[in-house]
Amino acid sequence: MKKSAIGARIIKDRLFTGIIFAFSAALIIPLIMILSHILQKGASSITPAFLTHLPAPVGEAGGGIYNAIIGTLYLVGLASLLSVPIGMATGIYMSENKNSKLSYFVRICVEVLQGTPSIVVGIITYLWVVKPMGHFSVLAGGIALGIMMLPVIIRSTEETLNLIPHSLKEASLALGVPYYRTILKVIVPSAFSGILTGILLGVARVAGETAPLLFTAFGNPFINYNILKPMASLPLMIFTYATSPYEEWHNYAWGASLVLIGFILALSLITKGVTRR
Amino acid sequence: MKESVLEVKEFDFYIGKNQILNKIDLTFSRKQVTAIMGPSGCGKTSLIRCINRMHELVQDTKVEGQIRFYGKNIFEMDPILLRRKIGMVFQRPNPFPTMSIFENVIAGYRLNGIKLKKADQNRIVEESLKKAALWEEVKDGLHRKGTFLSGGQQQRLCIARALAMNPRVLLLDEPTSALDPKATDHIEELIVELKKTVTIVLVTHNIAQASRISDFTAFLYIGELIEYGSTQKMFTVPEDKRTEEYLTGKFG
Amino acid sequence: MQEEDLTITSGKISPTGEFLFQKGIRLSGLLIAGLVVCILITLIFQSIPAFKHHGLSFFFSTKWDPVFSEFGVVVFLVGTLLTSFLALLISIPFSLSISILLGEYLKKGWISAILKSCIELLAAIPSVIYGFWGLYVLVPFIRPFEMGLGIIPYGVGIFTAALILAIMIIPYSASLGREVIQLVPAELKEAALSLGATRFEVMTQVILPYARSGIFAGILLALGRALGETMAVTMVIGNSNFLPESIFSPSNTMASVIANEFTEATGDLYLSSLIEIGLLLFIVSTIISVIGRYIIKKLSIQQQHS
Fold first, then answer.
1. pLDDT tens-digit profile of A66-87?
2. Does A129 lie in the same domain as A26?
3. Which pTM does this prediction carry?
4. How many structural domains are present in chain A?
5. How many CB atoms lie within 10 A of CB B232?
6. Beta carbons of A217 and A230 less than 8 angstroms apart
7. What is the pLDDT of residues B49-60, one digit of tens each?
8. Which of A29, A121, A173, C54 is 20 to 30 A from residue C92's alpha carbon, by CA?
9. Is residue B198 within 8 Å of residue B86, measured between CB atoms?
């Protein structure tokens, strides 16, 4: 009687372990399916010309996604330019004034911003930038992506700065170094790799964002460097071409998907390298 | 008594509503080592942190009374200039982790944006490291990170960093409490050597250390100055009963 | 003596630098606070025309007909809730298993390293690529399945969207779940094991009850993401503005209707109605994610104090 009870318990335990392993392993299936599909479909369209040419009209051979690659770099660069200084400054403020009322309020705001759906950021930027200007633009897209990057940068800056020992600040101040120089020349450089990780994570997060760009950067079949004009981007191009009825455009989209995933994976590899150092 | 560098007059210190120091009167003589000792929580660390106004890093502190540096009230001076003239070394060695040994020594200049010629930089680094008795050990690897050194070497690097600014007073806040006995010996010898050029205020809870290297000793107990005088006298014929009890290990 | 003068006179003590720095970082903080407040105000302000026109009927009407200026959010609300909760339901067994595996059974070793990288990879894939893959791989796969069930084989619809969403949110709840399971004090587990409990019993009777609120928070955060997820859903949900008949029907979510119709919205009322949907989405997902984060913060503070 007792023996069989123990036996039942052991069987239950084994069964549970088996189920846990099975469900966990199952997760790998969609990952492999997605990655292999993109690799298979995308690799065949990627040629040097594909990366360096503008899209060709439907029915014409050749053509590429040059405008989208440049557009994504342009948008992500602009977003970083806008969000990194403000995000870092806010992170510094919060870490230096942990108990102030403003820090408390900003902390809630960062949480709200992190939970804000990307489509809402798109609406907001449309209302703030596109509508007053009267047309879509790189600037609007950059601002939308910048807003999405902010919470990531603020949090990582604040969290890394909180880990810097207080004794470093004391050492610097005791040398007669003014407070602002202490923060900028001692504390921030000591936290450099953590902050850089945050920035890279932020870039990786927004590089694949599509929803905030729908009504801001909008897209453009040509190359455009004017900040006040619309511009293409990889995720947006994937969306437009994927939902089009043309087979050739689907191939563009697979190629663009592979390039985009490659870009994001490269970023996360760099991030890992930075953290390990 | 020799010429005084620092005078503490009727000095009170509060953190929030707690009074940490009560009516302290002390005079620190030029080019002498003055030890401040007492059981933990007596306010000795608070006292030396007030001397270069490091207490201002803590929120909600209040001071009453005066501390005079060459006759000038330090609370009317610019704290930044004051700290350049009164160097400080902390309990735990804290070299800047992102900087090399060379950069650590010259940090007081670089961080303050003071431009120096390369030759001046080399001279200051060499002199300071020699004064801190570290030169021979590190001269071949000045561009290695300071954090690779041993604890005792790091602490001497911190002393060199403070000396590089050519301070008038060097505040040492239990500089050997995180070090092993051998490194402690080294630092103690160094302190005796250093008093030829600089006035030293040493906070310690180590009675033997105070007796070995200080010229004057102040005994603090629960925020009050119990006794102050020459070290030799205090350790042989203490005036106050509490001093005697402390020195004989009855409390603390 | 000369060196002394060097340090005193030539040091840069710029009160302006100090002042600008202090003001600058404070201003940045204020800017972030202002940004969030302005987002809310803008959304509210821009929804007023729609609200004035429909009043509360907006929240009860199942009709969305821009041609006749009839706007009701119910269809999208139903679509959003159905896809999100279905996705959550599908994802929970997987995310919970991974949390348990990585948090307790296999804390180290190559299997857990591989699994962790897989989760990171899944989290890194952009939503538009999930949608693209869903449209060309998952949808053709679902169709015969639907035919087998004897329903109209759209392929696209709530179920397909929920399936894609489930894959997308597993990484979030799984990594959070793993963290909270790792927070369970070792003494508790050891105590139970020393009493002769099996691992399964330790898990169900000690670890899961202890980590309950944290796991719940992870699920909440995943729900927050699912509600606001736009691109993948837009591409596979079928974009139908009618109440779904079953979980295989095409539908539309709050986010996907905005994505589809915002740039084409003619007329202020139409646009304002879409913004009102955006406002609703913003409020709901913000509340959910703030509650989730609050629970997690409370947990980690508790942990530090014990």
1. 999 999 999 999 999 999 999 9
2. no
3. 0.90
4. 2
5. 13
6. yes
7. 999 999 988 888
8. A121
9. no
